[in-house]
Amino acid sequence: MKEFEKSKVIEELGEITSNMYRLGWNERNGGNISWLLDEEMYSDYIDPKNVKRTIPVEFDAGELKGKVFLITGTGKYFKDIEKHPAENVGVVRIADNGKELEVLWGFEGNTRPTSELPTHLMNHIARLKVDPEHRVVMHCHPVNVIAMTFVHEQDDKAFTLSLWGTCTECVLVFPDGVGVVPWMPAGTNAIAEATAEKLHDCHIVIWGQH
Ligand code: 13P
Ligand code: ZN
Questions:
Q1: Could you give the CA distance from residue 134 to residue 196 in angstroms, rounded to a whole number?
Q2: What are the pLDDT digits (tens) for 8-62?
Q3: How far apart are CA 167 and CA 171, in angstroms?
Q4: Looking at 88-144, which runs of residues are DSSP E strands?
Q5: Does the CB atom of residue 116 touch ligand 1 within 6 A?
Q6: How many whole angstroms from 77 Cα to the centroid of ligand 1?
Q7: From the alpha carbon of 186, which atom of ligand 1 is closest?
Q8: How many angstroms from the chain centroid is the CA of residue 19?
Q9: Angle at which helices 117-130 and 189-198 pack, to 10 degrees?
Q10: Measured in angstroms, how far is the CA atom of residue 143 from the centroid of ligand 2?
Q11: How confident is the model over 140-165, as pLDDT tens digits?
Q12: Residue 67 and residue 73: Cα distance in Å, rounded?
């Protein structure tokens, strides 16, 4: 087996997360990423029979059973991923019972997956239903958009029209618009369900005051 640290997947993740940190979209431990991996992306590096530990999932993720994800760790900083991937991210498989993550690589030093795990998994379920090519859920804290949620009506259509109006490229990048989930406690199944609901019609959801 080759070292997963040296894989294309880890190289790309490190590059992306370092950029996001540098651009100020992911201050401190803000934000998280999960990436649904195709088998050929990890099969030279990871033995799928070698489960290092299991981590409970607090809802039924059975629709994703057998799928393998790269997920960022909770409390971890995006700037550290490039140099120290194994302590900051992990590769997990959704167990057949849908109630556990099977850790196949990383999450060293007892690192746990992001506190937004319900949002990531429920959002993968929602997006895969409308787009079989879907692979990544990315959560970040872009300051201008957060500021906008303090002063703008939190309505999908109104928010979309204002964003489209800010620059010409917006309508090209997200022609399906954005969904808005008004403030609710983060890291919960409730915010995950509300977000997944919006993702049937669009691929970007804004969380109010978050
Ligand atoms: P984690 O450090 O648990 O990923 O949480 C960061 C965050 O952005 C919560 O919404
Ligand atoms: Zn957040």
A1: 14
A2: 999 999 999 999 999 999 999 999 999 999 999 999 999 999 999 999 999 999 9
A3: 8
A4: 89-94, 100-106, 136-139
A5: yes
A6: 10
A7: 10
A8: 16
A9: 20
A10: 12
A11: 999 999 999 999 999 999 999 999 99
A12: 18
| 176 alpha carbon – ligand 1 mean position (Å) | 26
Binding site membership of 115 for ligand 1 (Cβ less than 6 Å): yes
Distance of CA 87 to the CA centre of its chain: 17
Average pLDDT, the chain: 98
Say if CB 72 and CB 83 are below 8 A apart: no
Q: Residues, the chain, total?
A: 210
Question: Is residue 96 classed as helix, strand or coil in its secondary structure?
Answer: coil
51 class by beta-carbon count within 10 Å (0-12 exposed, 13-18 middle, 19+ buried): middle
Cα gap 202→204, rounded to integer Å: 6
Cα gap 129→36, rounded to integer Å? 14
> For residue 67, which of 108, 29, 121 has the smallest C-alpha distance?
121
Retrieve residue 206's tokens. 């804004």
Ligand 1 within 6 A of CB of 80: no
**Cβ density class 112-131: b for 16+ within 10 Å, e for less:** bbbebbbbbbbbbbbbbeee
Nearest residue to 35 via CA among 79, 104, 95, 91: 91
Q: Ligand 1: does its nearest atom lie under 6 Å from the Cβ of 31?
A: yes
SS3 call for 161: helix
Pairing label, strands 204-207, 178-181: parallel
